[in-house]
What we know:
The protein is of the alpha+beta class.
Amino acid sequence: MKKNGFTLIETVIAMVILSSGLLLLANSWSGSFMRIRKTQLSTEVSALLERKMVEIEMEYAGKPLDSIPEEKEDDFGSEYPQYSWKMTSKEFEVPDFSATLTAQAGGADELTLTIMKTLAEHMSKSIKEVKVTVVFKGPKKPLEFSATQYFVDYDKQLPMPSIPGVGQ
Length: 168
């Protein structure tokens, strides 16, 4: 007896193998597509963030630190409608080192503490921290990407501390 064609079981097995291969191929393509989309998003965000940081640096370079507003925000226009940006600024916060200095063996004398306090106050008034955030309004939730830069007023004179017992 001669057989022509395939049995039902052979056909079902072939269909299972074919559908498994197609499923693996679709998952692989989907994962690659998501990685490409994330890479594209990262590239756009980093370019927009760099662009905005340069614009802000050029806008406030050489100007007094007081001219930098505490908050500012806008979008990138019709070219990038799904992106917006915001800027926040604040005085630079210098940590208080007096506890660390006095905890050392032998402690810290009054002169050292006075100099450190004066230096910390001067740095707080001479440095402004500016943080720029680019917001991507995605389909699920907004994603935020930030960068911080510091503006320094190099022309601000360092005050001389009044030291008790030392002639001026």
